[in-house]
Amino acid sequence: MAEGDAAAIEHELGDLLFALTSLARHISVDAESALQAAVRRFASRFGVVESIAREKSLTLNELDDVALDDLWEAAKARLGAAS
């Protein structure tokens, strides 16, 4: 892949998404439903991340990547493995 070439990156990403959609079809999974469920899980987890940050009197924009990852893992634990 051509790093820094936005058009080439978009092209490769499109190919990857197409391949994943094809895989989903072959294993009898509705790709759109799977994506929608993933978005719901993300939104739920992110809401918990925001709640934990508020509990700790933090704002998300002041946290580094490590701290955000820690909050993300805490949110996953709070919601349970299935969410």
Q: Could you give a quick summary of the protein structure above?
A:
This protein is mainly α and 83 residues long. The protein has helices at residues 6-26, 31-55, 65-79. α2 (31-55) crosses α3 (65-79).
Give keywords:
mainly alpha; 83 residues; single chain; 3 helices
Fold and architecture overview:
- With 83 residues, the chain is an all-alpha fold.
- The chain is 73% helix and 0% strand.
- It is built from three helices and no strands.
- The protein has helices at residues 6-26, 31-55, 65-79.
- Helix 2 (31-55) crosses helix 3.
- The longest helix is centred in the middle third of the chain and has 25 residues, at 31-55.
- The chain is flat, with a radius of gyration of 17 Å.
- The two termini are 33 Å apart.
Query: What is the count of DSSP helices, taking H or I runs of 4+ residues?
Result: 3
Q: Helical percent range?
A: over 70%
Major pleated sheet: none
Strand content: under 5%
Topology:
Blueprint: H1 6-26, H2 31-55, H3 65-79
Helix pairs in contact: 2-3
